[in-house]
Amino acid sequence: MRLAKFAGGIAVAHGDGWLRLPQLSGFQSVTRLADIVATDRLRELAEAVERQSTDLDLVAVDLDAAGALIDRDADIWGVGLNYAGHANDLSTPRPASGPGSYLRPGGCLIGNGEHIELPTRTQRVTAEGELGLIIGTTCKNVVRDDWRSVVAGVTTVLDMTAEDVIRENPRYIPWAKGFDTFCSIGPVLVTLDEVDDEALRSVRISTIRNGETIASATPAAMKYDLGYIVEYFSAGRTLRPGTVICTGTPGAAVINPGDTVTAVVEGIGTLTHPVK
Amino acid sequence: MRLAKFAGGIAVAHGDGWLRLPQLSGFQSVTRLADIVATDRLRELAEAVERQSTDLDLVAVDLDAAGALIDRDADIWGVGLNYAGHANDLSTPRPASGPGSYLRPGGCLIGNGEHIELPTRTQRVTAEGELGLIIGTTCKNVVRDDWRSVVAGVTTVLDMTAEDVIRENPRYIPWAKGFDTFCSIGPVLVTLDEVDDEALRSVRISTIRNGETIASATPAAMKYDLGYIVEYFSAGRTLRPGTVICTGTPGAAVINPGDTVTAVVEGIGTLTHPVK
Fold this sequence. Notes:
The structure is a homodimer.
Chain A: E1 2-6, E2 9-14, E3 17-20, H1 39-52, E4 76-80, H2 84-89, E5 100-104, E6 109-110, E7 125-135, E8 151-162, H3 163-168, H4 173-177, E9 183-191, H5 197-202, E10 205-209, E11 212-217, H6 226-234, E12 244-246, E13 252-255, E14 260-265, E15 269-274
Parallel strand pairs in A: 4-12, 6-9
Antiparallel strand pairs in A: 1-2, 1-9, 2-3, 4-5, 7-8, 7-12, 7-13, 8-9, 10-11, 10-14, 14-15
Keywords (chains A, B): Metal-binding
Domain Fumarylacetoacetase-like C-terminal (chains A, B): 76-275
Pfam family, one (chains A, B): FAA_hydrolase
């Protein structure tokens, strides 16, 4: 199943178009992703689509202008330096006993197609395409092999960083990731039943600037795999439905005013943003 | 004015007791701190208390068991290594061109008196008493000297960290700060009109373990003062009402099962937590 946000709500893909949840009996009031990503609720939604779709008109959802997929109050965790290529970019060793991490505020989310603003306090901003996991179940201390049981689906992430700042000192990472417009997530959530482990190992993730692919890899090149990441971030802490975990980037593109930067997770979603 | 959270809502101090906001006409539905901290709204509240209090019974609020002051979805920013004493504790140089920073998830908040749980993935957890600023106004790019215009008030913070983890690599800081039960904020918000600059420079902040003061200092010893901190965190990013900025600690206490740890900001508030 595929979900996206349109102005004012959530839509679910069906056939050649989309159904808006407010059209579906039993789902009229759902506007938050957190309220629909639990396994039971997703199954109810699939059943409702199956039962009710013959009576409903499909609508168009412009994914290139879709709203940020993620609820404003969701936690957005991320893994740093998870692909060897990107760690080499930064001339920095990867942390030895676990992945680097960050948490960013929901206030920096933008919808697909919106401008990225470059803050004045940094001279070198990078954009990174990534695969994102969306948590579907309140969970804590998840065992690595059980990761699929708590994840609703996957999506695309474009993750901006004030790179000159973090090169100076990694203690600046939270600040360097939290500027307004520094995160885009979406436009589509693809539920996990559509992507088996083999598909996830081989899905191509790319960072593209002005049409040129700057970096590209598959999760097979991750140091820390998806199961490890879910175990790591849920260890000792409660993850709530709608939480996102950004799983690291194959490589970063330096962005400047006038550029257009794109994150692609093939078959999952594309995010494109002009830089102001 | 002084505000605290009791089960189910917010209370405002009056005379020798407290008035619960649901008792006050015009404030019955206010349960979120974010909905009451704007300057105008605080003035309306003060006027309502003035007008209506003679007809209302004061109630008791047990501050030692008060709920977490902060809304679950508020951003919780923090400054690292802001007092020389604590940077020396960690045998680490203070970042040169700005304060270290962190953001933590609201899910790690506990109410006053609740147990701190020590996660299994760390062998050395510290607790740090701090002064916290609570943002009252949606703001961005605040100039240092204007910081008072966007801050609603101050409070007490107890900030836990998996210190062995961050000693290994500062890229682990977000993870090391985000465990369940790792943050306590409250029990009282003291509005800024009650504390002038001189009072704020001289307010004593202490970390106490099992009755022994482990560290104590005043904000006069901060490397980055309150105005700087507000300017720094609002630069290029929108801060919303209810956001907290934790301003750094005079010193950290290592905590172990059976300990009781206390954060005191004199005249503002005391937080006490047993360690499980």
